[in-house]
Structures are given as C-alpha cells and as structure tokens.
Please model this.
Amino acid sequence: MSALAVIIPSPGAGPVAGTGPDSSLTLAVLCLAGAVALGLAWLVGFLSARPIVNHLVDGPRPRLPLFWRLGAPLIDPLAAHLAPWLSAATRFRLVEQLRRAGLDVVLGPERFVAGRLLAAGLGGGFAVVLAHPFGGPSLLLVAASVALAGLLPRTWLGDLIRRRERAVLRELPFYLDVITLAVEAGLNLAAALAQAADKGPPGALREEFERVLRDVRAGRPRADALRAMAERLAQPAVGSLISCLIVAEQQGGALGPVLRAQAEQRRTERFQRAEKLAMEAPVKMLAPLLLFIFPCTFAVLLFPVAARMLMEGWLK
Model:
C-alpha cells in the first residue's frame, strides 16, 4: 500500500514529474545529446571512411557533390539497404539523369535516393528544433518541411543538367574550330580530340572529350566511345556531329570539310538561340513589371497628389 502511495500521488500532492516546466528543459537536453551523438558518429565515420578508388584511366575522377561528401557516413549505409527496393524504371531514370549531369561515375541511383531521404530527415529535424520554442511544430509544418527538403536534391539535379546542356551548346563551336584546325594541319581524329581537350577551356565538353580519350586508351573502339558521349550528353547537335564523324571515318572521307560545316552550323544555331532569348526577354519581364514595378511607380507618383488632396480637404 505504501508503494502504491508513492507511485500514485494524492490530489493535493502537486504536479506529476514530467508535466511541469522542467519537461521542456529535459526535452531540449535530450535533443542536444542526440545531436551531439549523431555528430560524433558522423565524424568517426567520415574520418575512418576509405577514399573511393579512381577506376578511370589516366584522368581525374569527377568530384562528388558537397552534400554527399559530408553525409557519406550516413548515406552509404542507407544506400546499401535501399538497393533492393529501387525498381528498374526508377533506377534507369536516375541513371539517365545522373549521366546527363556528368555524375554517373561518382553518384549512383541508390546514393542519390539515400541523399534525398537524408535531406528530408534533416528538413523535418530543423522544423522541429526551430518550432520548439514556439510551442512545438504542427504535423502540417513537419510534413511540408520534409517534402520541401526531399525535393531540393531533385531540383538541384535538374538545374545542373540544364546548366550543363547550355554550357555544351555554348562551347561546341569553339571546340569544333580547334578540331578542324588540327585535322587540316595533318593530325588524325584522335590526336585532334587530344589537342582540343588539352587546349580548350574547362567545362562539360572538355570533360567529355577527356572521357572519350580515356575510353579509347582503355581499349574501347573510338566509334563506340563517341556514341557513348552522344548518349551521355543527349543533345541533337552533338548527336549529329558524332554521326557525321563516324560515317566520314568509316567511308574514308575527308574530315576537314565535315567539321567545318558542322562548326558553321553550330555557330548559326548559337546566334539563333541568342536572338530567340532576346525576343523572349520582354515577354518574361511583363509579369514582374505589372506585379512589382508599375504599382511602386504609381504609388510614388500619386503620393504627392493624394497628400495635396487630403490637405485641401477634397478627399473628406
């Protein structure tokens, strides 16, 4: 009976432990301890992780994105458990997107999905921590934070693909000019590609040419290496160039006129794209003008008139 009296307090005995003002302090201490333990686990895993072996031949490996480098101790074990759960369609779609972004060598579909899950978890955790001083987060806020944080890696990948495609189309005429000059100077196609990769500006196209040369040195036929480059970039201009080069080389035709015609065509297409963007600019500026600039301008212009009318008593 005395034990029951200790466990079950009397009505006038005061608040039960855990329901008073000390509960918020206890929860904050537990959250801090969990964050410290998670940080120590990440630090131990990051320091003890083995560096990834570079399996590319005679060339640097593309750099892993910062988020996946920092979260590797948490992402890699999660990716190992996610591998059996990814469907073939999802895996094929992610591999295609990573290939177009130039990250297929260092970032697989399992690691990308694991990174998205980690980002979603971090978003939910930040929402809980930030909303705790204000009475705790609502379920809707946590769900919205998780969804938004989980979509950020996908949005980042799409932006990276678009930037890479624009860079390839912008750099292609210059590289074609370099390859044309090298071929007309007496070099074969492989030596001309090596000159373009050596002398050209750094960028996506230079990385692709270097990858083609590495594949050829590793024993892959040059036509297959060029076709793989066209598949990775997924650009009609690059596909047309590769097809012309392969056909001209197989039929024994001169590469100089083919390359010069391709360079002229790519340069013309670049000017046409610039003209198209210049014509689209006024239409894209119409919505910001109507929503933000025009109202502010009218407010500034009409304020003296409205103030004068108030002073004269016309608006009373």
